[in-house]
């Protein structure tokens, strides 16, 4: 049995014990680590029992919640944030889509997977109730991303100039794997600025692996996600009216260090691929579309043609089934069942205009909650918390940007980012504002006074 196998078993069963007898939030932390470690796909998995580790830890989460449901429900009622109502409504849209889905077996399979994901998100919201628990979850996420970066460093690029085969269960593709790393960049920037000396050291160490992983995987969408999320956070640091001592100088230093590191770590292969973000006008339709990115816009707009006949969507894999009927072989680049290559158009194709509207309402309701939370923390001069919430917002934006170019509408990490923001609103705003029952109770108490 290798050291990796022993370490995994120690972390897993230690986390299970901690969740059952001490702190239920440990269960979700272990779930995060299992997701990244992906034991069924790693070389060291031969030395561990062949168990369904993710399933086991979810059962542990359910047991912990059942043991203390009444108290946890008072601390974290799902009804206190509208984002979860929209999230459940989106899930119900997938069940409604059974009535018009074109590929029932695929739709059934992925609707079941999406159902499990939403259940896990709802469980985690109940269990994670303090700032310390939230930060532990963020560090677990960062640690998992650093592990993926470590694997990329050890494996190196293939003949296509990319790293393949190091992803997670729901993100095996190189682009999907790179997108998972995007939110970690802005989280690391925040902890490098606001964390303790130990946190800063860990941020620097993990940052090297994550940055190198992003470079080696060579994903254009993820590159845009990192640039936009970090750029937005730095702009707020420099131009926001909420300033801590030396904040602007730190931001400028981060820019210099970041650019220096980028030029040091990147190579010609990386920049050659990034140069194809703007495709040549002479590129023929359908020619190497997936490699140069030029064909994605064609695939996206074909969704509108399909929706004229299927306004409620086509269900999971429905777009792929219709691709041969709406595109020529040349337009599809020789691939019969072409994918849409965008989370936004993926959602639009699967659950139609109504479904994508529900998804947007979920994001808007979350944005309104985080806006109130930032306003509250700024009024208390809690600028470290203000910028933590902002960092989590930027992390979500970064993932949404990366997901614009790949099918990530039902991705684990997308809903983790929503979860982290909802928990931040809960622990830093809803609880701190003097109510254990959420926004509605706060308003009710205000009227009584």
Q: What would you say this structure looks like, in words?
A:
This protein has 449 residues and is mostly helical. It has 19 helices and no strands. α2 runs antiparallel to α3, α7 packs antiparallel against α18 and α14 crosses α15. The longest helix is centred in the C-terminal third of the chain and has 37 residues. The chain is globular.
Give a concise summary.
The protein is an all-alpha fold and about 450 residues long. The chain contains 19 helices and no strands.
Blueprint (SSEs and pairs):
Layout: H1 3-21, H2 25-37, H3 53-67, H4 69-75, H5 82-96, H6 104-127, H7 131-155, H8 174-194, H9 197-217, H10 220-239, H11 247-265, H12 268-274, H13 289-292, H14 296-309, H15 318-326, H16 343-379, H17 383-403, H18 412-430, H19 439-448
Main sheet, how many strands, which sense, barrel?
none
Distance between the termini: 64 Å
Which secondary-structure class do the elements indicate? mainly alpha
Rough shape?
A: globular
Low-confidence stretches: 279-293, 435-449
SSE succession: HHHHHHHHHHHHHHHHHHH
Query: Could you tell me the radius of gyration in angstroms?
Result: 22 Å
Strand tally: 0
The averaged pLDDT comes out at 90
Helix fraction by DSSP (H/I, runs of at least 4): over 70%
DSSP summary: helix tally:
19
Strand fraction equals: under 5%
Oligomer: single chain
């Amino acid at each position: 049995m290798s050291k990796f196998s022993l370490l995994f078993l120690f972390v897993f069963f230690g986390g299970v014990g901690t969740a059952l007898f001490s702190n239920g939030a440990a269960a979700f932390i272990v779930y995060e680590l299992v997701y990244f470690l992906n034991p069924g796909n790693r070389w060291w998995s031969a030395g561990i029992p062949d168990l369904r580790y993710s399933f086991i830890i979810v059962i542990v989460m359910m047991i912990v919640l059942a043991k203390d449901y009444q108290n946890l429900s008072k601390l974290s009622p799902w009804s206190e944030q509208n984002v979860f109502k929209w999230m459940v409504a989106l899930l119900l849209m997938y069940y409604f889509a059974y009535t018009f889905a074109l590929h029932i077996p695929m739709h059934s399979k992925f609707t079941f997977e999406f159902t499990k994901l939403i259940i896990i998100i709802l469980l985690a919201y109940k269990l994670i109730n303090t700032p310390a628990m939230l930060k532990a979850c963020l560090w677990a996420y960062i640690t998992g991303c650093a592990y993926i970066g470590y694997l990329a460093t050890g494996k190196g690029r293939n003949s296509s100039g990319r790293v393949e085969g190091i992803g997670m269960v729901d993100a095996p593709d190189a682009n999907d794997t790179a997108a998972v790393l995007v939110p970690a960049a802005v989280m690391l920037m925040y902890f490098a600025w606001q964390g303790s000396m130990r946190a800063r050291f860990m941020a620097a160490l993990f940052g090297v692996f994550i940055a190198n992983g992003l470079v080696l995987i060579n994903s254009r969408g993820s590159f845009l996600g990192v640039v936009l999320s970090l750029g937005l956070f730095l702009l707020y640091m420099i131009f926001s009216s909420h300033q801590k001592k030396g904040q602007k100088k730190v931001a400028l230093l981060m820019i210099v260090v970041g650019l220096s590191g980028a030029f040091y770590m990147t190579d010609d292969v990386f920049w050659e691929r990034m140069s194809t973000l703007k495709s040549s006008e002479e590129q023929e339709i359908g020619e190497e579309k997936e490699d140069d990115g030029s064909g994605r816009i064609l695939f996206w707009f074909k969704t509108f043609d399909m929706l004229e006949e299927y306004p409620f969507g086509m269900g999971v894999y429905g777009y792929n089934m219709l691709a041969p009927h709406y595109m020529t072989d040349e337009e599809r680049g020789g691939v019969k069942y072409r994918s849409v290559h965008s989370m936004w158009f993926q959602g639009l194709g699967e659950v139609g205009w109504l479904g994508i509207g529900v998804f947007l309402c979920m994001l808007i309701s979350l944005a309104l909650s985080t806006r109130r939370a930032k306003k509250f923390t700024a009024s208390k001069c809690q600028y470290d918390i203000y910028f933590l919430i902002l960092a989590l917002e930027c992390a979500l934006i970064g993932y949404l940007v990366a997901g614009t170019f790949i099918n990530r509408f039902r991705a684990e990490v997308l809903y983790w980012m929503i979860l982290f923001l909802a928990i931040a609103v809960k622990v830093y705003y809803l609880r701190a504002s003097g109510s254990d029952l959420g926004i509605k109770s706060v308003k009710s108490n205000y009227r009584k006074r």
